[in-house]
Design a protein that fits this description.
By secondary structure, this protein is an alpha/beta fold. The protein contains 12 helices and 13 strands. The protein has a domain of 233 residues: NAD(P)-binding Rossmann-like Domain (Rossmann fold, 3-Layer(aba) Sandwich), CATH 3.40.50.720. The strands form 4 sheets. A 7-stranded parallel beta sheet has the order 3-2-1-4-5-6-11, with helices on both faces. It has a two-stranded parallel ribbon with strand order 7-10. It is globular. The chain binds nicotinamide-adenine-dinucleotide and 2'deoxy-thymidine-5'-diphospho-alpha-D-glucose (DAU).
């Protein structure tokens, strides 16, 4: 079995590669990643020398290079994690989101058709459903909730999902799509809420909470997401969409306070800053389908997952310090300087 994983030098793709190589030591895993600011080869260091692993520094929008990888490696399964993934950056500069998230998906699906893969899996997001109001805790996103996007990021992911469904219906490409809620865990790039707050708190820097901090996200430990994708690519039904989430809704401000207390810091570090444009209020996944059809349930409780995550950032300071002291510094100044 050969699985081609795109975006494997990023947060979830990297965790997925580690998960799969441990669980299926006989599988060949081919990683395609062009190493944007979010891609980090250090994340893949533990598997780089494994004879069943190969890395290609290739952009998924580069049709010729992608064709070459497919012709050399002949993957059975493709799992597409590669994306521009940060909402705030999509507000600053939408274009690269359309290129990677939409055109890149098309290029990968064209190669998947040509080389007749047995499964093309698209890693999508709950953000394609838009948001839910705070005063309707009875509402959840199901797979049939209409697509209703808010940011250039979520619009680009939704466009890709529609294209994937079109390739299934028109060309019978054997596809599946998963839509997951917010992940957290090791190797999470420190521009995102949880790692940013951990890094800032450790450096006694202000903790910038957007708006009032009342926005709700549905947090899932990254390994639970990896296990769900493993199940979908092996046992999921072609043409289907699966929501992934563990009913773990939390307000941003509560997450930040948990981190502050776990690190023994003062709540005085918390600073309310101007809100994100178009900020989604609440995400909440209904995971009934994946539970019923594939037997998936999350295994890591938030109180355990957040402890493990904080410990990982304490143990791997060099991983995130190199990021925050590098080019990322300029982004941080632009994004938070006058906020
Ligand atoms: P990430 O930003 O940490 O990593 C993205 C990876 O893709 C990086 O390694 C980057 O170098 C690579 N990449 C970007 N553009 C590329 C291109 N044109 N060609 C090749 N490689 C490219 O993202 P993440 O948080 O790991 O998210 C992975 C996927 O999961 C994305 O598709 C995202 O939409 C989806 N998702 C993320 C979350 C979350 O909470 N992080 C939740 C649900 C779904
Ligand atoms: O729901 C899945 C999505 O989760 C994925 O599709 C995205 O790729 C991923 O980035 C994530 O999107 P969010 O916008 O929810 O994640 P982020 O970590 O950027 O923000 C989480 C919440 O925290 C959001 O309400 C904004 C807020 N926030 C974020 C940052 C970076 C702050 O209050 N302050 C901050 O500095």
């Amino acid at each position: 079995m050969t699985i081609l994983v795109t975006g494997g030098a990023g947060f979830i793709g990297g965790n997925f590669i580690h998960y799969m190589m441990k669980k299926y030591p006989d599988y060949r895993i081919i990683c395609v990643d062009c190493l944007t600011y979010a891609g980090n080869l250090e994340t893949l260091e533990p598997v780089m020398e494994n004879k069943n692993f190969k890395f290609y520094k290739v952009n998924i929008t580069d049709r010729t290079a992608i064709d070459k990888v497919f012709s050399e490696e002949r993957p059975d399964i493709v799992v597409n994690f590669a994306a521009e993934s940060h909402v705030d950056r999509s507000i600053e500069n939408p274009e690269v989101f359309l290129m990677t998230n939409i055109i890149g998906t098309q290029v990968l699906m064209d190669a998947s058709r040509k080389y007749q893969v047995t499964r093309y899996h698209q890693v999508s997001t709950d953000e394609v459903y838009g948001d839910l109001p705070l005063d309707r805790p009875d509402l959840f996103f199901t797979e049939t909730t209409p697509i209703h996007t808010s940011s250039p990021y979520s619009a680009s992911k939704a466009a890709a999902d529609l294209l994937v469904q079109a390739y299934y219906r028109t060309f019978q490409l054997p596809v599946t799509i998963s839509r997951c809620s917010n992940n957290y865990g090791p190797y999470h790039f420190p521009e995102k809420l949880i790692p940013l707050m951990i890094a800032n708190a450790l450096n006694d820097k202000p903790l910038p909470v957007y708006g009032t901090g009342e926005n709700v996200r549905d947090w899932l430990y990254v390994e639970d997401h990896c296990r769900a994708i493993d199940l979908i690519i092996h046992k999921g039904k072609v043409g289907e969409i699966y929501n992934i989430g563990g009913h773990n809704e939390m307000k941003n401000i509560d997450i930040v306070k948990i981190i502050v207390h776990a690190l023994g810091k003062s709540e005085d570090l918390i600073t309310f800053v101007s809100d994100r444009a178009g900020h989604d209020m609440r995400y909440a996944i209904d995971p009934t389908k994946i539970h019923r059809e594939l037997g998936w349930l999350p295994e890591t409780k938030f109180q355990d997952g957040i402890k493990k995550t904080i410990q990982w950032y304490l143990d791997h300071k060099e991983w995130w310090e190199r990021i925050i002291n590098g080019e990322y510094k300029h982004y941080y100044e632009r994004m938070y300087g006058d906020r």
